[in-house]
Amino acid sequence: MIQKMLEDEDSGDRFIRNLVVFTVSCLIRGDQSIRSNFKILLSLVKVEDIKNLNWCKYTRRSLMDAGEEWQVHPSRMFSRALLFLMICYFDRVQFKGQVLDTVYPTLRIWDKEKIDKRVKDERKLGFGLGKVMPRIMPVEEAEEKEESDEEREEEKEDDGMLTKEDCVKEIVAVAQKFSDAFIELTKLTSTISKKFPNSDILKKIYLTTADYFIRQANGKENEPEKE
Fold first, then answer.
1. Residue 11, exposed/middle/buried by CB under 10 A (0-12, 13-18, 19+)?
2. If you write DSSP's letter for every residue of 16-77 in order, what string do you get?
3. DSSP string of 124-183?
4. Where does the record place Acidic residues bias (predicted)?
5. Cα 203 to Cα 3, 188, 199, distances in angstroms
6. Measured in Å, how far apart are the chain's first and last C-alpha atoms?
């Protein structure tokens, strides 16, 4: 299909529909065969509405369907949206402080070698641990966001108060710091439990941490302990 698309001189609606069909067939709702998923063409009649379709719901449904099929036929390959979602996850979650060039589209950087290494590392240390990175945005969208941020900063300077968006940002920032610290604490306690299995170090850490949170919540972090 891709060869015929390259040979076709049309760059209008037909090319856009073919590109969407090809992308969906390869990354979101493909199957064990190499045939393209032309069923989706019914949803692509109006090209201008493609960007407004609920692609998140479609991808999620595809993953669930693939899971159900795989449970019936576990010897088959797990097809459809799994690889696509894995790449999105790898690109957005920084693991072990590893930094890769952020490029668009994401597929350009995540080749088989990098995917295999990441899977191996996460199997060894645990899935879901890492820092969530900012989403890549098209240039126009990024410029609009920058202008919007500048306008909010000006509004904040004018009235000297935080806007609702600023409050949400600060909450997210604090939550992110807490998440990163909790991940580091989890790694540390795991290391301690392996090196000193019969020690009471972990018990002391948990008690100290709990006491700290209680004192912070009560606003007594600067008060000395009473004898």
1. exposed
2. HHHHHHHHIIIIIS--SSS---GGGGGGGSSGGGGGGS-HHHHHHHHHHHHHHHHHH-TTS-
3. HH-TT-SEEPPPP--HHHHHHHHHHHHHHHHHHHHHSS--HHHHHHHHHHHHHHHHHHHH
4. 140-158
5. 63, 13, 8
6. 79
Tokens of 210: 């709990």
Q: Which two tokens stand for residue 195?
A: 């090196």
pLDDT tens for residues 91-127?
888 887 777 666 666 677 788 888 888 888 888 877 7
The CA-atom distances, in angstroms, between 117 and each of 100, 114, 122, 123 are 13, 5, 9, 10
* Structure tokens, 19: 């590109």
- Lookup: tokens for 29: 């709702």
Q: How is residue 227 written in tokens?
A: 């004898």
